Amino acid sequence: MQLFSVEYWNSVPDNTFWAWCVGALAAGAGGLYWFLRSVQRARTISDVPTSRIRSAPQGYVELIGTGRALQGPPIVSPLSGQHCLWYSYQIDERSSYGNSGERGWKTIERATSDALFSIEDGTGFCIVDPEGAQVIPHVDRRWYGNSREPLTGLRIRRGRYRFREQRLEQDWPLYAIGEFRTLGIPIPDNGVEVAALLRELKRDPQRMKAFDRDGDGQVDKGEWELARYWANREVRRRAVEDAPPEAHSLLSRGSAQRAYILSGKSEDELVRRYRLHALAGLAALLAGLPMAIWMLLARFAA
Fold it and tell me: Which of 6, 50, 81, 145 could disulfide-link to 298, CB 3.0 to 4.6 Å?
């Protein structure tokens, strides 16, 4: 083959040579990155144990459950009009480009939803923030049409417009791995609730006796500070108990650099997927890097 001929690489113009060389190096570097990234993600998914939402620790966790919509305005995919948890879409238009008039595809519109939804596993709810996540959807559709409207003038293979829509569906199984944290319950700074509870305490002599540590029938300054401390903790306890369960936890990308994945595929399917990606990256590395080295040697060491 010409690509493995020393004479060929010595005869091609410089711009052609360097274009091929840079391309081979890029393929090798990209393959290395893809290989390492995919191996790391497959290992992470395999190693992190599945947590139950009610007892999940703070930090990096894996959750498996069912995706649910939150109360409020529904999330609707603009292309199909389907209700969902998450969507991403892209519209391409066939157009001419360059002096040769070659035809290709130009992206004219794309968008990805960032609305919150939740995951339920039978022990509780966890709010999911999809921003920054790698999403493997339940539904991934591609179609063509002769109209800018996505559901009119449909064609199977040809058309002026090309549409793609990805969705995470409501009430379907959902796999998630990311940063889990319990949300704080805000307490007003003016202490209105604390003051009201202390007034209530003053009107109940029997309860006030609990803070009269020396038994002299009076609550002195130090004992009153103890009562204030108790009132603060009681207000916080009541706030947590009265808050809706789904507001207690959040799954998000967080500040860590670890993988944040939301997937319509199961854990086993994801591990197989990333292992196949790792093999593809390794193939690109083993093809691109030796090719670049061969080209440089053929050109400059012959």
Answer: 6
